[in-house]
Amino acid sequence: MTTIFEDFAIASSSAASTDSSVQSKLDSFDTGYKAGWDDASKAHLESKKHISSVLIQNLETIEFTMAEARASTLKVLTPMITQITSTLLPGLKQEALRARLEDELESLLKNSVSGQIALEVSAGDLSTVKDLTDGDTQFQRVSVLEKPSLGEGQVYVSCEDQTHLIDIDKVLEDIREAVATEFGTSELEQAYAV
After folding, report:
1. How crowded is residue 153: how many other Cβ atoms within 10 Å of its Cβ?
2. What's the CA gap between 12 and 54, in Å, rounded?
């Protein structure tokens, strides 16, 4: 006898095998996806390592090049800077002394020093200091005395119970030393010298 109705019993066993086939495909997809992700992560990590390595190498090259450039520049500039300091600084001595004394006296007068201010100067600086103090009414309490034992650029400033020395030669020598130190060659520059 022929049945007019469809037999679902055969179809349900076929559906069960289809479900396991779908699950198998999903499992294969997940495994492949995970393997692909792991490969991409590994490739990215290797790429980062390579980039870091190249960057470190380039930075070392730049550092070496900068040291060479600095050494070369200093080699060219050192004679010029030495010439400038040896020529200009002695010529600025009188102006530097005048400016330093003016600042010191104004500071003493602002701090309400009530007594007389005495300046002891060398014979060579006497006229410079007198020119500073004689023409200005704010310096009326300042007396200028010659002291033969002082060198040019040295001044003793005395007021009340305080006395201190202004030594322009020492300042100029400090400037010369600073220039020599800055423009001298360091061990690194000697190592990379051109």
Report:
1. 22
2. 63
DSSP 8-state code for residue 1? -
Decide: residue 183, CB within 10 A, 0-12 exposed, 13-18 middle, 19+ buried: middle
Which pLDDT score is estimated for 109? Answer: 78
**CA of residue 119 relative to chain centroid, distance:** 41
**Closest by alpha carbon to 142, among 152, 150, 134?**
134
- Token duo for residue 84: 């400038």
Read off the pLDDT of each residue in 46-63 and give the average, rounded to a whole number: 86
Q: Tokens 């600042």 — which residue?
A: 103
Q: How far is the C-alpha of 85 from the C-alpha of 179, rounded, in Å? A: 8
| Model confidence band, residue 193 (pLDDT cutoffs 50, 70, 90) | very low
The answer for residues whose C-beta is within 8 angstroms of residue 72's C-beta and 6 or more apart is: 194
Q: Which domains does the chain have, with CATH numbers?
A: 7-194 (3.30.2320.30)
